[in-house]
What does this fold into?
Amino acid sequence: MPNLKSPLGNASYVNHLNKVKVLDVIRRARAISRAEIVRATGLSAPTVTRVVESLISEERLVRETGPGASKDIRAGRRPSIVEFSGTDNAVIGLDVGATSIRGILCDLNMQVLCRRELPTQVDRGVETILDSIARIVHEMLAEAVSLEKRVHGVGIAVAGLVDRQSGVVVFSPDFGWEDAPVYAALTERLDCPLIIDNVNRVMALGELWHGVGKRFKNFVCVNVGYGIGSGIILNGEPVYGNRGLAGEFGHIPMEKDSRVRCKCGNYGCLEALASGRAIALAAQQELGAGATSSLTDRCQGEIRAINTEMVAEAAKAGDDLARHVFENAAVYLGIGLAGLINLLSPEAVVIGGGVAEAGDVLFDTVRETVQRRTMKGHATGVEIGKVTFGLDATVIGAASLILNEVMRLKTVGRGRGKKSVSLAPF
Ligand SMILES: [Zn+2]
It folds into this structure.
């Protein structure tokens, strides 16, 4: 006889699954009656009543909103409506980037309640960065207290290869870190649940839960900022690869005999040719070689101060040199994306990061190059556009790391004294 009672088939596990299912239905509907939950989930009326009661009184993720319009005249009773308690609960999302650490406190409907930002100060070392992260989190927790919000945890996006299970940053060229135990170091400073993940995957997760993921199950989110990375979603799930290191789109080698050195130590990577850093460097080199451009005025003669935003603004204003530099980067990006589309056959590619803010100057060339360089028919119908939340894509994604755990009613993090997200009363 096969053992029919699997270890996952016990009552508490089934109860947990039912709760997750009901919570998801309530959140998607915003406001719904118990009878409608019964219809939507296929669960029995007594089960729905019991689960909803628990979600109201124990997890405090659902609340009563009073009687709705009657749908049953004979019964004469108006159904009691419940709704997702998104505004009473909050999460914190942080993007630890090469130049700045940005944080948001937002409710579970992803409405931003407050923001904090500090310079990263990479040259001051890892301890300074960790202290800055802790300072931002403490300030936002204080804000949450004054707003009477219950915070469930902190999601942190880091540029680099992140082992999500251990919270170790395996390698980060931007910070010069190798095997940095960031999670362990932060739990010494912060007494709340934490999740750390790679910034590009985090951006893709934010899109999956709140952006293009509402329409597509297969898409790639490409982050073109100081560096280039990507998060890949296939069949509605993020691709982690071996050790969770998948998605290093920026380090696809593009040139055989390139002399352009990449920050990873290799030569001719896409990132070395098309990132924000590459665009700024290319403009600086052209001007240094004697080219004329409105960029000279924009940087007040200080060529080394030219950054990506200046080049983007000049390109938008029609500056020939800036347009040339941007279009050159966009062609490389388009060629890289053509390879990615041939390989994965996604429904959409969304591009975020500072470079994507340049708009049509970038996207026109990228779309045209993708059409030209993909295998016949492969790019047909593939949407190529900007990420849903613009420059907030990474912080919204980081906050979503916690939201996802809350929605699954899961324990997150190993912060001191905090065993469960729903037991994190700050
Ligand atoms: Zn590289």
Notes: The chain has three domains: 7-84, 89-205+398-423, 212-387. The CA atoms of residues 371 and 379 lie 6 Å apart. The domain at 7-84 is CATH 1.10.10.10 (Arc Repressor Mutant, subunit A).
